[in-house]
Amino acid sequence: MKKFKHGMVLGKFFPPHNGHLYLIEEAFKQCETVDVFVCSLKSEFPAGEIRTLWMHEIYKDNYDISIIPVNDELPQTPEEYGDFDGFYKIWTDVVNSRTKNLDVIFTSESYGDEFAEKLGIEHVLVDSERLTYPVSGTSVRNEPVENWEYIPQAVRGFFKKRVVVLGPESTGKTTLVSNLSKHFDGDVVHEFGRDYTDDIPGPQLVTSDFDEIAIAHDMFIYQVTNQTGTKPMVFIDTDAITTKLFGEMYLGDDFHSKIIDDIIDDQDFDLALVCNIDVPWVDDGTRDFPLEGDRQRHLDKIIKELESNGQPYKMIYGDYDKRLAMAIRYVEEVSKK
What we know:
The protein is of the alpha/beta class. It folds into two domains: 4-141, 3-Layer(aba) Sandwich (Rossmann fold), CATH 3.40.50; 160-335, 3-Layer(aba) Sandwich (Rossmann fold). It has 14 helices and ten strands. The chain has helices at 18-30, 48-58, 78-81, 84-98, 112-119, 137-142, 153-159, 173-184, 192-196, 207-228, 240-251, 258-266, 292-308, 320-335, and strands at 4-11, 31-39, 65-70, 104-107, 122-125, 161-166, 187-189, 233-237, 271-275, 313-316. It has a five-stranded parallel beta sheet, with helices on both faces. Strands 7-8-6-9-10 form a five-stranded parallel beta sheet, sandwiched between helices. Helix 7 (153-159) crosses helix 10 (207-228) and helix 8 crosses helix 14.
C-alpha cells in the first residue's frame, strides 16, 4: 500500500526534462494518484499549451497521473508580488480550484515547505541538489544539443536542429548531407525527388508530379524530425524550394503550384547551407542543366526564395574538403543556439 492517496507536483516544465520526470515518478511511487500542474505565462516559448501536450503524451498510458494546465498570468515569486501572504493565497486558491483532497506536494525546491503549510498538506523534498539529473529547463532551452540525453523522447522533436542543404545540380549536396550526418551522428532525409524521377525523365514530368514530390519530401522531414527524434540533428537533402525551381525549369510558364508555395511558406529550418557553383558539373545520368548560365540562374533563384521567406542561410564554396569544413563550422554554431 502506498503512503499517500493523492499527491501533486507543480512546475513550469519549461521544457519537460528527465529531472522533472524523476520528480513525478518519485511522487507516484508514494501516491495512488498524482496531479501534475503545468504552469505557464503567455510570454514563454514554447507555450504552455505545447508543454501540456508533451506531458499528456509522456503520461498517456498512466491514468493515475493527471495533467492540469495553469495558464493564468500569476505572480512567480513573493518578491515579485510584494505581499508574501497574498502571493501564497493566490496560488493556494489556484490549486484548490483545480483539485481536491490533496495529501502531499512533491518538489525539489526550497519553497515546498511553505507552500505545503499554506495548503495544509505534507511536503516531500526530492533531490534538491539535482544530483540524479544535473539539468534545468534553462540549460535545455539554451543548449538542447548539449543536454540531449536529458530531453524526453516526446519533446525532442521540438528541439531537434534541422539543417537543409540546397544548391543547383552537381554541387555536392547529397555528399555533404552524408558527411555531415556522419560527423554529427545525425539523422538524414534523402532527396525524394531523385528517387521519384529515376524512371521518369525530367521533360516528361507535369505539375502534379512536382506536387507529389514536395508533399512526400515534406512528410519525410516531419516524420524524421518529430517521430524519430532520437538524434539532436537532422540533415535534409533539398526542400520544396528545390522542387519549385525544377518545376519552373522544366515546365516554364506552365508551372504554377499553390501546394508547393504553401509548403515553402511553412518551412522552418535552423540553417540552410547553399552550395555554390564553383565546382564542375558532372553528368550522372539524371542531370539536365549543364550550362553555366542555367546553374547561376538556379543559384540566384534559390537565394531569392530563401531571403523572401526569411530563412537564414550560409553559402558553401571551394573544393569539397573546404565545403565540408565550412559546413561543419556553421552547423556547430547553430547547434549552440
